[in-house]
């Protein structure tokens, strides 16, 4: 399964992190990669914060347990609030340290990986 726009944005964030460019757009690239994946998989053009209903329906179709579905959305909600706080304010983003940024990178990757495994037809849940 290929999502070139998602990959490009995520890779851009990783390159910035690797080169120690801890700026607002690194965090924004991570958010964009997740948002683009949601838009592609859920087949809509909504922003990250407005995907709850569509995501819930998608996860239900994939037979994801209710507790996991709720946890996934709750984490997305906190993630979006964090992103809004840091990605929109240059001075806050500049104060982030590498451990904080690395946490957000791995969290974003986990969100993405979960959806990609659900999209993989060989991983159908029963």
From TrEMBL:
This is DUF4145 domain-containing protein.
């Amino acid at each position: 399964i290929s999502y070139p726009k998602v990959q490009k944005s995520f890779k851009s964030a990783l390159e910035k992190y690797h080169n120690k460019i801890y700026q607002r757009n690194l965090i924004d690239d991570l958010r964009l990669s997740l948002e683009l994946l949601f838009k592609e998989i859920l087949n809509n053009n909504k922003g990250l914060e407005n995907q709850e209903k569509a995501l819930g329906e998608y996860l239900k179709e994939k037979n994801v347990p209710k507790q996991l579905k709720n946890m996934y959305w709750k984490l997305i909600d906190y993630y979006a609030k964090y992103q809004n706080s840091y990605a929109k304010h240059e001075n806050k983003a500049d104060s982030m340290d590498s451990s904080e940024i690395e946490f957000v990178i791995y969290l974003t990757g986990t969100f993405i990986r979960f959806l990609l495994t659900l999209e993989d037809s060989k991983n159908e849940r029963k």
